[in-house]
């Protein structure tokens, strides 16, 4: 299945319509990345305005992540079955409506619901948009050029989200929710006119809806149980029953995948050591960073008294470093191999989190905050592309999409689960809301930061065994964008 605009690898100039199509797809990825980063700085203002507890507040982040990660695999299959253009445009329209509703609601549950719907829609726009690129631009320099532009927009969205959030939150946190709506609407109108029609894959035997339902339900229930456990008790009948039901759902998911003619995840792929390390490493990496951002934005605004804009600018060096170095990582991987690059990145990640543990009630930007952000930016630039390359190396061409979807799912679900765990830690014993002094508030945040550091250490330990394996021959790589909005690289393949 190919696009009517399919561009030969030898064609040097792109038509205006081709540029327009690419820009529409870039706008959608820009919005996905923007939404991941923009909400973080606005959380303290949202909590104050809607009177939300810390445990409820984290669901504004987790709702989007779970919606995104839960249906990424199904989103890719739906694009193949129903048509990439149709799936992309419908999901983009839903994203615009959910953005509008998110800025108008006056209750925490409704805001969380709008964020969850936005995550679901992004789970369909991301794989559909990327597959439109891979079927429009042939493998080689033309596709690499298109993907480089696509990735730059993702990195820019992630970095600009922090600054835009700071600026808009100075007016009202609602503007951070409303901003994506008009951008998505303009992209939708342009997409209707510019994105080419593509044939449906009538030979496709279907997609694994039972697997998608059971897998998503299991992840939702797991995170809900972890979040609620501190309030109802870790050994309470409700908590134990929820964990048991989660295990049953996961077991059902495994049975469905083993028997399905078209499974969402071919379980045999997880017999590979590098594959398992890539998946678990992705969970640890993104889970630790989302949790870190959740704690630090509250620390900076609640304890240091920084404005939303000051908080955003404090995070900006990490995002800028990722954007500037995103196209250079492929050369490092070719020279040293993914295991060494991943381990180095995780070591920098641990160092950045450990350094931030030195924060106190007085701003120490030059000595603690800035060095921590630079370490985290360098770690992000090294780890995310390398994990993607490792996950896709040695995988058959007809399973590349499945493995890429699995990696993105691991990223999003890992973020949701570890954020829930860290939130449970900082809200234990009454949490920061019940603290009697600023120092007591910091004492509640510090164990959460220690857990974040511990998650990164676990990620480092998971990836270390890869150093014992003989480095494989370097694979050609390309730059693409993960669902978190952070640049990655993967082997160039065409499934259609």
From TrEMBL:
Gene3D superfamilies (UniProt xref): MFS general substrate transporter like domains, Multidrug resistance protein D
UniProt entry tagged with the keyword Transmembrane: yes
Transmembrane segments: 57-75, 87-104, 116-135, 147-169, 175-195, 207-227, 239-256, 276-296, 308-329, 341-359, 365-384, 405-428, 448-467
GO cellular component: plasma membrane
Cellular compartment(s): Cell membrane
Entry's Gene Ontology molecular function annotations: transmembrane transporter activity
Chain segments annotated as coiled-coil in the UniProt record: none
Domain Major facilitator superfamily (MFS) profile residue range list: 21-471
Topology with respect to the bilayer: Multi-pass membrane protein
Keyword terms, alphabetized: Antibiotic resistance, Cell membrane, Membrane, Transmembrane, Transmembrane helix, Transport
Primary location recorded for the protein, binned into one broad class: membrane
SUPFAM superfamilies in the cross-refs: MFS general substrate transporter
PANTHER family: BLR6921 PROTEIN (PTHR42718:SF46), MAJOR FACILITATOR SUPERFAMILY MULTIDRUG TRANSPORTER MFSC (PTHR42718)
The protein's name in its UniProt record: MFS transporter
Organism field: Streptomyces purpureus
Source taxonomy: Bacteria, Bacillati, Actinomycetota, Actinomycetes, Kitasatosporales
């Amino acid at each position: 299945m190919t696009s009517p605009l399919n561009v030969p690898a030898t064609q040097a100039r792109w038509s205006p319509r081709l540029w327009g199509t690419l820009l529409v797809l870039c706008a959608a990825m820009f919005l996905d990345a923007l939404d991941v980063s923009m909400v973080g700085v606005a959380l303290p203002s949202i909590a104050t305005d809607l009177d939300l507890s810390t445990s409820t507040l984290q669901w504004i982040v987790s709702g989007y992540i779970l919606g995104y990660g839960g249906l990424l695999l199904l989103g890719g299959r739906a694009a193949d079955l129903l048509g990439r253009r149709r799936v992309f445009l419908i999901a983009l329209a839903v994203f615009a409506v959910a953005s509008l509703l998110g800025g108008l609601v006056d209750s925490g549950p409704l805001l969380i619901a709008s964020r969850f719907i936005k995550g679901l829609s992004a789970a369909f726009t991301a794989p559909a948009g990327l597959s439109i690129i891979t079927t429009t631009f042939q493998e080689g320099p033309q596709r690499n050029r298109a993907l480089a532009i696509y990735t730059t927009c993702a990195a820019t969205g992630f970095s600009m989200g922090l600054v835009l959030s700071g600026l808009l939150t100075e007016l009202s946190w609602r503007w951070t929710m409303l901003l994506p709506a008009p951008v998505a609407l303009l992209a939708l109108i342009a997409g209707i006119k510019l994105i080419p029609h593509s044939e449906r894959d009538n030979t496709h035997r279907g997609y694994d809806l039972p697997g998608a339902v059971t897998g998503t339900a299991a992840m939702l229930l797991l995170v809900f149980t972890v979040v609620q456990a501190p309030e109802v008790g870790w050994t309470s009948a409700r908590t134990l029953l929820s964990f048991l039901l989660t295990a049953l759902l996961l077991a059902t998911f495994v049975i469905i995948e083993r028997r399905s003619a078209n499974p969402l995840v071919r379980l045999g792929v997880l017999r590979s050591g590098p594959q398992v390390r890539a998946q678990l490493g992705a969970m640890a990496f993104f889970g630790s960073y989302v949790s870190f951002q959740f704690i630090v934005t509250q620390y900076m605004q609640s304890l240091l008294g920084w404005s939303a804009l000051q908080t955003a600018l404090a995070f900006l060096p990490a995002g800028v470093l990722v954007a500037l170095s995103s196209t250079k990582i492929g050369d490092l991987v070719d020279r040293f191999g993914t295991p060494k690059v991943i381990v180095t990145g995780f070591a920098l990640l641990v160092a950045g989190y450990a350094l931030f543990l030195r924060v106190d009630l007085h701003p120490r930007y030059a000595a603690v905050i800035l060095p921590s952000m630079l370490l985290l930016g360098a770690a992000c630039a090294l780890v995310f592309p390398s994990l993607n390359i490792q996950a896709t190396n040695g995988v058959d061409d007809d399973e590349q999409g499945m493995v890429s979807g699995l990696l993105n799912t691991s990223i999003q679900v890992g973020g949701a689960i570890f954020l829930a765990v860290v939130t449970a830690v900082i809200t234990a014993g009454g949490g920061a809301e019940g603290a009697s002094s600023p120092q007591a508030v910091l004492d509640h945040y510090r164990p959460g930061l220690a857990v974040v550091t511990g998650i990164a250490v676990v990620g480092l330990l998971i990836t270390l065994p890869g150093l014992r394996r003989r480095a494989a021959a370097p694979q050609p790589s390309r730059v693409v964008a993960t669902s978190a909005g952070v640049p990655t690289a993967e082997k160039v393949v065409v499934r259609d």
